[in-house]
Structure prediction request, 421 residues.
Amino acid sequence: MKFIFDRNTWQEIFGSIGKNKTRTVITVIGVLWGIFIYIALSGAAKGMDNGFEKVFESVSMNSMFVWGQSTSMPYEGFKTGRPMQLKLGDVDKLQNRIPEINNIAPRITLGNFGTDPVFTVRGQKSGSYPVNGDYPVYTKIATKEIFDGGRFINDEDIKKTRKVCVIGERNVQELFDKDEDPIGQFIRIGDVYFQVVGVHKLSYGVSFDSDAAIFIPFTTFRKLYNTGDKVDYFCIAAYDDVDVVQVEKDVKTLLRNIHRVNPEDERAFGSFNLGQMFSRISGFAKGMTFLSLIVGIATILAGVIGIGNILLISVKERTKELGVRRALGATPREVRSQIILESVFLTMVAGIMGIILGAGVLALINSLSKDLEDFPYTNPTVPIPYVLGALFIMVVLGTLIGLIPAQRAVSIKPIDALREE
Prediction:
């Protein structure tokens, strides 16, 4: 350790480096470029991963949708083309028989999937908007951010079939005067008056509803529109640690059994697996991070080998000098340590410069992309442990590659070195 802080040691190292500045700089750039590629690509992949997490933050990552279609096979006397209608009673059967399901939200709607929106009036202003019948559990699958002073549908609304509604930002803009508080006011949805109890904010991520969607209690919707126990589709969220693809298969298999559909009929029930899509996106980001690690290490290794080569040349050029040092009493350990220290020093300098350059590029990318709402990219950074790990790898590689010229220097006999011209 004392050897490292010896002034003479560093004078000799800087003297050796200074004898051929151009060769040293070119070689150091190889290591610098490697760590720069690693930092830049890893940070970019992390920014993409952060962006998609932000997009999906308002919905359960292991969620899916299931709806009824038409049969494509005859079964038990039923003909092909029989329309499938989901029922409210399916909820308990799915939850009881598929333990991987965390939450199920039955939904019924007007204004979506080819149905006409509902004409809505408030005073002299009006508009046509989609209306959804929902249970409170829906917000456990798709988060609804409500403005201060308001709320979403609750259990009492369901139980008492209340005529209350939650409206969107666009509904407020089109039906209310500027700066007017809509909470507690009444609007007419179709032919029935509803009291506004909340206003949901526009989500810039993945959203199942528009900024003009109106939510009313499921029981109220069923009573007003005489839909009985019909359900348009289920929003289903599985637990985070389960295979969401298998859950989707189990759900459709059970629904085919409940509704007496041919077990081989894949068209009877439609589905969209948001969890599977998110897993693919997350896997792509992880693949990018792994690729950046491989490319970065390979480039760093190539640069470190270059440093080893210039040290071998340096040892050859300093043969006589090393012979004099040995003749004056320098031990093989001191000579070896100096060469290794020079190798590690060059590697570390190149690495730190590469990290600074990579961080600067990521900061620039973050500055240019922070206001992009349509592009899923947020805060491209590399975790500190990853950076420290990269520096550790560089120290190890610098030490190992420095052993080669160090051993070459130690193998020089003092008498032979002094004779060399």
About this structure: Residues 63-274 form one domain. The chain has 13 helices and 13 strands. The mean pLDDT is 81.
